[in-house]
Amino acid sequence: MAIKVYKPISNARRQMSVLDSSFYTKKAPEKSLLVIRKKHSGRNAQGKITVRHKGGGAKRFYRLVDFKRNKFDVPAKVVALEYDPNRTAAIALLQYRDGEKRYIIAPADLKVNDSVMSSKGVVEIKIGNSTKLENIPVGSTIHNVELVPGLGSAICRSAGSWCKLMAVEGAYATLRLPSSEVRMVPKACMATIGQVSNQEHMHVKIGKAGRKRHMGVKPTVRGKVMNPVDHPHGGGEGANPIGHKYPKTPWGKHALGVFTRKPNKPSDILIISKRKNKRTA
To answer: Where are the domains of the chain?
Structure first.
């Protein structure tokens, strides 16, 4: 999917770029696969803001995407490639031989009228087909990978992501993830052949603040421009350093370089090599 830039008719347009929508073959979504997406604006059940800087934004319907690929051994035809406002990847509309329609995450290079299939057994190793990790050749590029058999895919679902199947031994398969982490996953887990579509997503330039508001993201005010009563970085005359040993949140906690993974997490025994260039303690 190509990047489209605009003529610089304004300061915002000069910086802005978008993805070329000619990749999509269908504009209106499938009504039977839409549900209402209620906005919570970062608030929990008590109405308290637990995630800041969220709110507003354009109205979206949620597309019901099939992450389990549990319609086995029934060929499906790719009817359309569509835009999904709820994720970075494109989605593909499948129509099965019995007439049922489902959305899946669209792999790169998948085209309309292609045939895909999901199976617990051996399937043809081609883009869009889904099967268990034990049936996929070592060295293959895969995405939409389950971590627990039958629960649906959990990793490698965003635009352009993929992981590599390194080995299958015993009850587990070894994967190298996009973060460079190497971990084991039960070989009975399902995965889809290929790389996720929309690889150019990371190169899109938003260009202006208003476009971010359309996405439901509200402005973030820097702590150092606040008063001391409002933020640990606040106060001072003119441009001052933060005046602390490390950047802090408004509540005084570490703001950068914090390792958020829980210590002694049960799945630690499945991680062979942790991701590189990240703080690990």
So the answer is: 3-201, 221-271
Q: Which of 212, 209, 198 is nearest to 20 (CA)?
A: 198
- Average pLDDT of the chain to the nearest whole number: 93
**CATH no., domain 221-271:** 4.10.950.10
Q: How many CB atoms lie within 10 A of CB 174?
A: 20
User: Taking phi first (over 0 means left), then psi (-120 to 50 degrees means alpha), and beta for anything else, what does residue 149 get?
Assistant: beta
Q: What's residue 280's pLDDT?
A: 44
pTM of the predicted structure, to 2 decimals: 0.88
Structure tokens at 231: 């933020």
Distance CA 45, CA 41 (A): 11
Diameter of the chain by CA atoms? 71
- Residues 10-66: tens digit of each pLDDT: 998 998 999 988 889 988 999 999 999 999 999 999 999 999 999 999 999 999 999
Phi/psi for 23 (5° steps) reads -65, -35
pLDDT digits (tens, 9 = 90+) for 91-106: 999 999 999 999 999 9
Please write the tens of the pLDDT for every residue from 149-165: 999 999 999 999 999 99
Choices 2.40.50.140, 3.30.1360.120, 2.80.10.50, 3.40.50.300: CATH for 3-201 = 2.40.50.140
Tell me if 146 sits within 8 A of 187, measured CB to CB.
Answer: no
266: number of Cβ within 10 Å:
7
